[in-house]
Amino acid sequence: MMRNRLYTKDEVLQVVEAALNALDSTEAPIQEPEHLDNDIPQKSSPVNAKVTLTVPEAAELIGICKPTMYEMVRAGKVRSVKVGKKILISRQSLMDWLKEGDSYEEAC
């Protein structure tokens, strides 16, 4: 049966120092993974995500009730288009409204 052993502070420092020395002695430069490169634009939504949302979908996405979302559309707080009887809100206009930080006071 193996017992767990607690290491002393000196032993831990020796292991850390040995690891740092091993890293310093590597001749090849350490390259950051590509996904951490800030020069590559990152996608903020899934590939199959819809570009537009219905009012109920937009309300669910940002966590508010449908009547409040309809009122925000009516008041012009969030840009939308009407296609037939359906009101569509672009994801981008919803994200722009959130980014602006414009508040809306309407209880559900």
Write structural notes for this entry.
This protein has 108 residues and is of the alpha+beta class. The protein has helices at 9-24, 55-62, 66-74, 91-100, and strands at residues 52-54, 81-83, 86-90. A three-stranded antiparallel beta sheet has the order 1-3-2. A hairpin with a 2-residue loop joins strand 2 (81-83) and strand 3 (86-90). Helix 2 (55-62) packs across helix 3 (66-74). It is elongated, with a radius of gyration of 26 Å. The chain starts with 8 loop residues before the first helix and ends in an 8-residue tail after the last helix.
Give the CA-based shape: elongated
How many individual helices?
Answer: 4
Average pLDDT over all residues: 78
Major sheet size, sense and barrel closure: 3 strands, antiparallel
| Integer-rounded radius of gyration | 26 Å
Order of helices and strands: HEHHEEH
Biggest sheet, spatial arrangement of strands: 1-3-2
> Which structural class should the secondary elements be placed in?
alpha+beta
Distance between the termini: 62 Å
User: What percent of residues are in strands?
Assistant: 5-15%
Poorly predicted runs of 5 or more residues: none
What is the β-strand count? 3
How much helical structure, as a percent, in the residues? 25-40%
